[in-house]
Design goal:
alpha+beta, Alpha-Beta Plaits, Chitinase A, domain 3, Trigger factor, domain 2, four-stranded antiparallel β-sheet, 12 helices, 11 strands, extended
């Protein structure tokens, strides 16, 4: 019952395990006896089949289970005896003379580097009246309605057209439609196609050429010139709702009207700005931590993370309508992301352990309350979190992560950079 340990490359280790054959066979016989008491086999009543027949059918499976259990127990005890911190799961394989080997990784020793060299640029944003008005305009445009007008079509109008298209005199797939709606200037159809409809009036027919871009999504049309004949059926002018109490009510504001609506828009923008700033700062802190503290990452943990990322990606693609057999993806493409995630996880675990960083219950509650403010009924969201331990654990993990970031920031070099909300959101 000995176990010998070898150090391979880096964090890899190999352990040779010897099991007691008599103990293995005794456990196999014991389990076969239990199965025989209830085994159903043709020609025999339940539990009355001869043990030899039961063994012939089940001994291979049972012996594999017994060996697996014995190896795992023996490995666990040997790892404790050698004071090993095993990362991931061991890979067992037969060895000469009836022994087995377990190949595995151990966790690295992490010594956090000098954090004073980490440089972080923190955006500073004040939500302005112009930001509120700009958001209000977006909300109005999302509620646009159209009225029929008796005039020539202009940019911003919605027109309904019948059209047919040919290439070299021959029709092509997708080149014909009836009562097709086009919002001029929106860019959902080709620019030259939309542009040819401007200034047309209801009942007018026009023929024009359009060249498809070289990178057009329909490869059979890319770079080709089509001739379209379009008849404009109707012109509708866009009307935005007025900024009044009716708009506020339609947006869920039951008291306070426009003033309350603007106040809530400002609060939502401030929350979004805070999230964006935290994300940017966190990314810089994580990059700085990894640069200041290089260490080897267990290959087994990276492989597990790669598989997890692949499974998530496949699930997401299937949810979007793709068939699993059409998803050609290997987990190797997630190698850089997986390695970074594992390294950050190990590094943050070390910071928590070495520095006693925790997530206080009042911080978790404050985060849940903040999440809830984005919803119409915050109390329902709070209850939703409070009645599910896994959701609370997710919030607790976010708080702990934020506390780690703040701990690093106390030791890093921070420079504040005033900016606008539009730049922070990536709109400029």
């Amino acid at each position: 019952m000995t176990a010998t340990l070898e150090t391979l490359d880096g964090l890899s280790r190999r352990m040779t395990l010897n099991l007691n054959p008599a103990e293995i066979e005794a456990e196999v016989s014991k389990r076969l006896g239990k199965i025989a008491k209830n085994a159903r086999m043709d020609g025999f009543r339940p539990g009355k089949a001869p043990l030899k027949l039961v063994a012939a059918r089940y001994s291979g499976e049972i012996r594999g289970e017994v060996l697996g259990d014995a190896l795992q127990q023996r490995f666990t005890q040997a790892a404790l005896d050698h004071n090993l911190h095993v990362a991931g799961y061991p890979q067992f394989a037969p060895a000469p003379d009836g022994a087995f080997t377990a190949t595995f990784d151990v966790f690295p020793e992490i010594k956090v580097g000098d954090l004073s060299g980490i440089k972080v640029t923190r955006p500073i944003v004040e939500v302005s009246d112009a930001d509120v008005d700009r958001t209000l305009d977006i909300l109005r445009k999302q509620r646009v309605h159209y009225h029929a007008v008796e005039r020539a079509a202009a940019v911003g109008d919605r027109v309904h057209i019948d059209y047919t298209g040919t290439i070299g005199g021959e029709p092509f797939q997708g080149g014909e439609a009836r009562d097709f709606p086009v919002i001029l200037g929106e860019g959902r159809t080709l620019k030259d196609f939309e542009g040819s409809l401007v200034d047309m009036k209801a009942g007018e027919t026009k023929t024009f050429d359009v060249t498809f871009p070289e990178d057009y999504f329909a490869k059979e049309l890319a770079g080709k010139t089509a001739t379209f004949t379009a008849t404009l059926n109707a012109v509708h002018e866009a009307h935005l709702p007025d900024i009044d109490d009716a708009l506020a009510l339609g947006l869920g504001i039951h008291e306070g009207g426009v003033a309350q609506l603007k106040q809530e828009i400002r609060a939502n923008l401030a929350r979004e700005a805070k999230r964006r700033i935290q994300a940017r700062v966190k990314e810089q802190v994580f990059n700085g931590l990894l640069e200041a503290t290089p260490f080897e990452v267990p290959a087994g943990l990276v492989a597990m993370e790669r598989r997890a990322l692949l499974e998530k990606a496949v699930t997401d693609l299937k949810a979007r309508g793709m068939r699993e057999q059409d998803i050609q993806m290997r987990d190797e493409i997630f190698e850089p992301q997986a390695r970074r995630r594992v390294a950050l996880g190990l590094l943050m675990d070390e910071l928590v352990r070495a520095n006693g960083i925790t997530a206080a219950s009042e911080q978790v509650q404050a985060l849940v309350d903040e999440f809830a403010q984005s919803y119409e009924d915050p109390s329902e969201v709070v209850d939703w979190y409070q009645h599910d331990a896994s959701r609370l654990n997710e919030a607790r993990a976010l708080v702990l992560e934020e506390n780690i970031v703040n701990w690093v920031l106390e030791r890093a070099q921070i420079s504040d950079e005033p900016t606008t909300l539009e730049k922070l959101m990536g709109n400029k």
